[in-house]
Amino acid sequence: MRFVLWLISVIPLCILHPIGGFLGEVVWRCAPRFHRRMSENLRQAGYRPEAMAREVSRQLGMQAIESGWIWKRPHRELMKYVKATEQADRLIADALASGRPVLFLTPHIGCFEITPVWLAQRHLQAEGRYMAILYRTPRKAILRPAVQKGRETPGIVPAPADLKGVRELVRAFRDGQIVGVLPDQVPSKGEGVWADFWGRKAYTMTLPLKLARQFNAIRIVAWGRRVPGKGWVIDARRWEGDLTGDLNKDAAAMNKALEGVIRRIPEQYLWSYNRYKCPSGVQRPPQESEARHG
């Protein structure tokens, strides 16, 4: 695996992305399970798989292979390939200037590995700020050292999805810092609620919502749109509206905000992700339980 990551890291991005696109299309054609899940998720969101599947699979291949490239590259060098819209730059600068903590939501759109790197390099280090990133340890042990090292950088504090990580998030919010999460990642038992996502119940994380309300955090949804062969463009929107404290309503509102962002570049969303899975020990939502036993 180390050799593979090294090999990926020395390939120019203008060559790497086409390779990833080709591999993604091969997987689409040769992996029935991958094909089926992607098609089901696209249909659930109102898209026609036959019209989008080829491009979506190509983008997923690029996403998979570019992650290793990012992990192995110096972060300052990566900034040569990253641009940001004026709105994203201004939004982040204003949020940091406010002195309030920030909840930085980066869903599985485009390149979600590059957005925290950009934030740390462009804004946080110069101001002596940092971001605590909630992450889940990769299941494959061989990937853990590479992922851990790739996500370590001045301005970023990894927070594992356990009690220690929760304490890190609380500390960051309390200190007026930034907390980064993948809001459409399925949480473990007891860490979420069932909320609508494209008209179907998805187990949705609630911890960031609780803490954002408790500490009156500014909420920003950010993403890195991939420009194949050239790099990424960072964009961001503020998630407006009050958090009510009703976790079901707040989780549904977050999912609705994510849907709006995904609509901007649907071909770069991670449609192959098993977003509707039921974590071990969690009871399925009533309508699905009835359908399975009916």
Describe the structure in your own words:
The structure is a single chain. This protein has a domain of 190 residues: Glycerol-3-phosphate (1)-acyltransferase. Helices cover 49% and strands 17% of the residues. It has twelve helices and nine strands. A hairpin with a 3-residue loop joins strand 8 and strand 9. The longest helix is centred in the N-terminal third of the chain and has 23 residues. The radius of gyration is 19 Å and the shape is globular. It comes from Mesosutterella porci. This is Lysophospholipid acyltransferase family protein.
In short:
The chain is an alpha/beta fold.
Report how far the terminal alpha carbons are from each other.
46 Å
Shape: globular
Helix content: 40-55%
Biggest beta sheet summary: 7 strands, mixed
By DSSP, the count of extended strands is: 9
CATH architecture of the domain at 81-270: 3-Layer(aba) Sandwich
Spatial strand arrangement across the major sheet? 1-9-8-2-5-3-4
Task: Give the helix/strand class.
Answer: alpha/beta
Subcellular location: Cell inner membrane
InterPro entries: LipA_acyltrans
GO molecular function: acyltransferase activity
Keywords: Acyltransferase, Cell inner membrane, Cell membrane, Membrane, Transferase
Notable traits:
Glycerol-3-phosphate (1)-acyltransferase; 294 residues; alpha/beta; seven-stranded mixed sheet; 17% strand; 49% helix; globular; two-stranded antiparallel ribbon
